[in-house]
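Quick one, T. Sequence first:
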Amino acid sequence: ISPNGSTHVYPGQTVTLTSTAAGGYLWSNGEQTQSINVGAGTYTVRVYSGANCSSISDPIVVTEMTVGISS
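Structure tokens:
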């Protein structure tokens, strides 16, 4: 899984996660496309390369940063 930027996001921001090319995809959030836009959370993708042949990625964690309060 490759992020298109930092995996540390502010509230309301997203990051695009992209899988390597394959015949099919099933992300842990239910999406079935090569790339997904997500907020904070932990994500994996199962890729399908043929009949009864699939593998699952290592998890990637997108962390939500807290917004500091200035005085």
